[in-house]
Amino acid sequence: MTTDSATVPRPGKRERLVNAARELVYLKGISGTSLALIADAADVPVGNVYYYFKTKDDIVGAVVHLYEEQLRALIAELERRHRSPRARLKGFVNALAERAVEAAEQYGPQYGCPYGTLSTELAKKPDVPDELAASLMRIQLDWAEEQFRAMGRRDARDLAYELLAAYQGSAVLTATLGLAELMTRQARRLQRWIDDKGEDR
């Protein structure tokens, strides 16, 4: 039995649009990315984009949700792999640094952390809900706090802030100075910092 290909969306079209939007927003920013550019990069006719997304904000929201899924998958993998909260935190820093290095090798070191750059852009847009702008940071902060709390730290939230601020600061320096190796060095320093955070006495 045959189907009318004109009435059945080609499998994977939505995923291609979201992935194209993810890459374009990372490289060009939200304001520099149009639905026409996304459609072209995804090899989808512009008119078909509206079947999946009514506005550019909708597709940017889908990119945020894709990143959320990536973070949750990473966290789940770390929790499967490591029994110790300290080892999970060190694995988290290492994984983020590896992804940053891979992105730098593919696109150049000037683009920074995709989670941080997108969150910063969204926070500047007055029409974006606060929960969407902050969601990628909150996932990381809440999970890091849980790990530090499991290590017996009463200052777990402050340590989570410090960890994420150190990583994001390293990403900004890597981008602005163009030093791809800086992220790897800073990741090692952060892992030693985590090792130094014993239980509260």
From TrEMBL:
- Where in the numbering of this chain does the HTH tetR-type domain appear? 11-71
Quote the SUPFAM superfamilies the UniProt record gives. Homeodomain-like, Tetracyclin repressor-like, C-terminal domain
Which segment of the chain is annotated as a signal peptide?
A: none
Which superkingdom? Answer: Bacteria
What keywords tag this UniProt record?
DNA-binding, Transcription, Transcription regulation
Q: Which Gene3D superfamilies match?
A: Tetracycline Repressor, domain 2
What is the native source organism of this protein? Answer: Tenggerimyces flavus
Q: Kindly indicate whether the keyword DNA-binding belongs to this entry.
A: yes
| Protein name as catalogued | TetR/AcrR family transcriptional regulator
Residue ranges for the DNA-binding region feature of this UniProt entry: 34-53
